[in-house]
Amino acid sequence: MAADARRMIAELRELAELTGDERGAQRLAWTDVWARAREWERGLLAELPVEVDRDEAGNVWATLAGRSPQFLIIGSHIDSVPNGGWLDGCLGVLSALEVLRALSADGSPPLTVKLVDWADEEGARFGLSLMGSMAAAGQHDPDFVSRLRDAEGVSAPDAMAAHGVDVGRMGDSSSRLKDAVGYIELHIEQGPVLEARNLPLGVVTGTYGTERWAARFTGQAAHSGSTPMDQRRDALSAAARLALEVRELARTRGGVGTVGRIAAEPGIATAVAGVATALVDQRHVDAGTLAELHEAIVSASHKIASEEGVEVQWSPLFRVAPIHFDADMVDAAGAIVTDLQGDDVRLPSGPLHDAARVAEAGVPTVMLFVRSKRGLSHTREEDTDEADLELALTALERLVKGELERRG
Q1: Which residues sit opposite 206 in a β-bridge?
Q2: H helices then E strands: how many in the chain?
Q3: SS3 (DSSP) at 272
Q4: pLDDT value at position 359?
Q5: Does residue 148 contact residue 140 with C-beta atoms inside 8 Å?
Q6: How many whole angstroms separate alpha carbon 257 and alpha carbon 374?
Q7: What is the greatest pairwise CA distance in the chain?
Q8: DSSP structural state of residue 57
Q9: Taking a C-beta distance cutoff of 8 angstroms, is the pair 145, 157 a contact?
């Protein structure tokens, strides 16, 4: 039995209707809508000869027993950002479910196969991405998670307890990756590379290293009407100059750099800003170049601060090293993609994915990307042609069956 792309697409649209509105998907982790999506997911899994359970971190697992207790993991996440798209994350879950259907119809596979729906990949409510996969990978910090609050002041422990998760026990989920021989994830690209090359599929070689920093410029607040331009110590002007410098430095080094937010104080039109904090996100596939990029950005910030008569201090917010996926699995995926579309496209992922945490835990990992229209994601305008989704499911199914044969 082959995986049925039409059924998968119909279920993707059903999920969008069930958990979205006119603004887009609303499956924010640790909310009632997310729980509704997972209950719907469990209804689909109940039709299969699988054992379904949830681990201590809130990750949902569906196990199809094979002839060996060693197992291959397939899946992604079903949570979304607010006002998100109809494919981000849930494509990986529902395509894996469709492959699981095909495998179960063919009898017992050579290895056990586990579908996973990771909890809170997006980090949209509490600001910590990859929460469930981090715990499974042995990287859970209960003290840090316990201090998290959402925009309404609700604590992460309280919100998660409402969904049956104890922050103090999330790390116990790390036992779930023992005996895993591989992990495969299908995801929309969320970028414009495949569309620019007019190709539907790509093989992901790994994920960018990512660093996030806060650069706090401190000058002197003053009246905007009475302070001459040449006597100002304008923290906001310094932060704005840094934003442009981050962009240029990233361009020269082949990475990406973004200042996504500048918070100025006192933040009114009639006052020169005395303090401005810029949130800097920088990414590169090479760890050494990523470090060089940060050094260059910090050096530029001090030069700008001197010229603007302000001071600057840097504080780390988040850091993950570049992750390289398994070479053999990347080659196997490349051969399948080449056969299906005539071209082997390999690219790193700028966005982080649960696959990165699984790979960090030592599990051989690979991802497949499918083309995103206009490169858009995290918006209701996110879309992929159905023909591309069908081809992506074919690639996933062939890759999963190939890995089961190779490792079985």
Answers
A1: 324
A2: 12, 17
A3: strand
A4: 97
A5: no
A6: 20
A7: 81
A8: T
A9: yes
120 plus 134 within the same structural domain: yes
Q: Which amino acid is at 231?
A: Q
Rounded distance between C-alpha atoms, residue 126 and residue 324, angstroms: 27
Q: Which of 325, 323, 340 is nearest to 396 (CA)?
A: 340
Give the count of beta carbons closer than 10 Å to the beta carbon of residue 124. Answer: 21
Whether 153 and 292 map to the same domain: the answer is no
Q: How far apart are CA 67 and CA 357, in angstroms?
A: 27
124 and 81 in contact (C-beta within 8 Å)? Answer: yes
Q: How far is CA 322 from CA 58, 118, 208, 227, 367, in A?
A: 26, 21, 5, 47, 15
Look at residue 408 in the predicted model and tell me its pLDDT. Answer: 80
C-alpha closest to that of 281 among 301, 261, 266:
261
Of 76, 77, 78, 94, the closest CA to residue 33 belongs to 78
3-state DSSP assignment of residue 21 = strand
Q: Which residues does the chain have with pLDDT short of 70?
A: none
Note whether 203 and 348 are within 8 A (CB): no
pLDDT digits (tens, 9 = 90+) for 305-325: 999 999 999 999 888 899 999
Residues 45 and 117 in one domain: yes
Domain boundary among 272, 296, 320: 320
Question: For residue 318, what pLDDT is reported?
Answer: 84
CB neighbourhood size of 298 (10 A): 16
pTM: 0.89
Peptide bond into 266 cis (omega under 30): yes
Element (H, E) at 33: helix 32-45
| Same-domain status, 309 and 329 | no
User: Could you give the 3-state DSSP secondary structure of residue 348?
Assistant: strand
What's the pLDDT score for residue 319?
86
Domain containing residue 245: CATH number:
3.30.70.360
* Domain interval for residue 316: 209-320
Rounded CA-CA distance 284/290 in Å is 5
User: What's the confidence (pLDDT) of residue 1?
Assistant: 82
Average model confidence (pLDDT) for the chain?
A: 97
